[in-house]
Write a structure and sequence with these properties.
Length: 83
């Protein structure tokens, strides 16, 4: 796995499957997976895996104290918690 592929695997594939990439990064990512079958397969596999997990996990709301503790620990979110 070369350097670009390692970055794709470790950092970008989850942003891609969650549709959280900026436009410039998305275009570069799409160019890369068009030329790299290994990364393209990794992205497909990750998308399928996350879809299965989401389907089977259901939605459960975390207890309020846990949400408050998590959000309080995020520097950009301190003081913005609204229950």
């Amino acid at each position: 796995m070369d350097c670009d592929c390692k970055k794709i695997h470790e950092e970008l594939v989850f942003l891609f499957v969650d549709d959280e990439m900026g436009e410039e990064t998305l275009l570069a990512f799409k160019r890369h997976i068009a030329d790299c079958p290994e990364c393209a397969e990794d992205a497909k596999y990750t998308r399928r895996l996350l879809m299965i997990v989401r389907e089977r996990a259901g939605r459960t709301e975390a207890p309020r104290h846990l949400r408050e503790r998590i959000l309080a620990g995020l520097p950009h979110r301190r003081g913005f918690f609204r229950a």
